[in-house]
Design goal:
The relative contact order is 0.13. The chain has helices spanning about 5-30, 35-55, 60-70. By secondary structure, the protein is mainly alpha-helical. Helices cover about 80% and strands about 0% of the residues.
Amino acid sequence: MNGLANHDARHYDLLCRTSDELGSAGTLLKQGASEELVLVGMHNGLRFLGAIHRETTAEDVLAQIFSTFCIGK
């Protein structure tokens, strides 16, 4: 594979992983699962999307999650 094909395959894989994680989070949300369980899929989805452009780090995602959700109550 050439560099562009590798790049496209990597993006496709990351988008598929994002879709899977967000789909799982949506299913858990519909089933009434706890926020913590739903957030795992959301966190993973954001991490995969961020990996495409290498703009989002785990620390960025966690900071956003903890700034907007009250976890543990």
